[in-house]
Amino acid sequence: MPKFFSQEWIEKFVEAVNANEEYANAAKDWEGDFLFVVEPDEELEKPMYAYIDLYHGKAREGYVVEDPSQVNAAFEFRGKFSNWKKLLAGEIDPIKGLVTRKFTLKGNMAMVMRYAKAAKLLVECTKQVETEF
Amino acid sequence: MWWFASPRIAFGEDALEFLESLEGKFFVVTDSNLVKSGVVEKAVKHLRGEIEIFDGVEPDPSFEIVEEAVAVARTFQPDYVVGIGGGSSLDVAKGVRIIYENPHLNPEEISPWTDVEEKGVKLILIPTASGSGSEASNAIVLTKKDEDRKIASVHPRIMADYAIVDPEMVKDLPERVAVFTGLDALSHAIDAYVSAWKNDFTDGICIQACKLLFTYLPRACKDRSDREAVERVHNAATLAGLAIGSSQAGLSHSLGHSIGGVLHIPHGFACGICLPYTTKYYSRFALEYYEELAYHLGIQAKKEEAVDELVKKIKTLLADLNVPDNLKGIFKEYGIGEEEFYDNLKRLVYNASTDNTVLTLADIPSEEDFEKLFIHAFEGKDVDF
Predict the structure, then answer these.
(1) Could you tell me which CATH class the domain A7-125 is placed in?
(2) Which of A47, B140, B243, B259 could form an SS bridge with B202, CB 3.0 to 4.6 Å?
(3) Which CATH class is domain B8-169?
(4) If pLDDT is split at 50, 70 and 90, which confidence band does B113 have?
(5) Does domain B175-379 have CATH number 2.40.50.140?
(6) Interface of A with B (CB under 8 A)
């Protein structure tokens, strides 16, 4: 079982995205890469970063990022480790999580607002990856 | 964690008199028809201070109209933004307040997690129809003209400070407008009751709104001098607006927004006529909630039978209101033929399936199911898939 935010986990996530036809259709015009950030808390000492390039309904590539200053992604989604765990367990609704500031999202919001379904499906894909925390 | 929020609500006869307790500069956002008909004056005469009226709100208002109104407001520098009208004027007024206070913000970029500043401008919303519930919700629905698409933006700062729900403002509402706005309110109440975000703070509100609408809407539509019925329906619309502010609208609105954006029929007709079909379809995900709602509406049947009875009850209401129970019938009234519907079906399906309201569904229907839903609602066929 891949460890959360390891290279293997990210590759499994990319596979899950690329196998999801509904996502492919909902995000068919989407162009924008993401930096995902796991912020430290009681259970995590150092932050973790992952880069995913999403383009026209597919994930073109994904990898672990050591130095976030080297990545200039269009969107950044970040939250504490404990909240990521709850998100993957389905205990936090991704939109409620953003509204209640458990997660933050930076980037072009006008674009995100047009792809609400794609965003929801993207989170669903994380749940499909068996994860060791 | 989640929230339930509400403006301070003055309701009932003479609620407009509350306005006399406020002083300052009032920027009124409305449409020219309401000014001409004297409805705006009914509220404005209670304002104490300098008044500027922007009456350029259009049906299915666009993002551009918000920016146009904000430009006028900047010169006037109001203490209060006052929306007077149906959902369109109220939504524009909400947009004006938030953009006026946050000039750097593109209205299209308002999302629930956008950082906004509060600079003390108060928002007062006075509905002149009983339907959108916009006076009590934290959402704005604006049209992206170049995409024929309605976009709903939600943010806590969108919520009004005051809502004035005075039946005087709706007593002269034309019957047909009363019908489709009332159906919008019913769609809000039912959608919110079965939403994945439903909660203890909205359930009772939804039930009461449904009870009021099933009981009083036909009376209020047939006779606008029926003061009791008009007032109760007006209250019901605000209640339903409060409910969607916390629990959000659902599937009838996914279809309704799509139909409104592409084929431009009144929003309440689009949602209300889709309700029997979305109710039956969505009961696969929310059977217990529909059964519970049906019980509170006096239906004794259980499980799927309760849903079928609820669908019948909605169709009976449509019949009482002289509204067809299928999209084909209502489209005909607006000069939209079968060919135009089927020519646009693909776009209707795509827009519905990507509408923001799908976020609060327990499960997002596939595009194939959305297409079937549209066709069944168009043809008036019972949902059997």
Answers:
(1) alpha beta
(2) B243
(3) alpha beta
(4) confident
(5) no
(6) 22, 25-26, 93, 95-96, 98-101, 104-105, 108-110, 112-118, 120-121
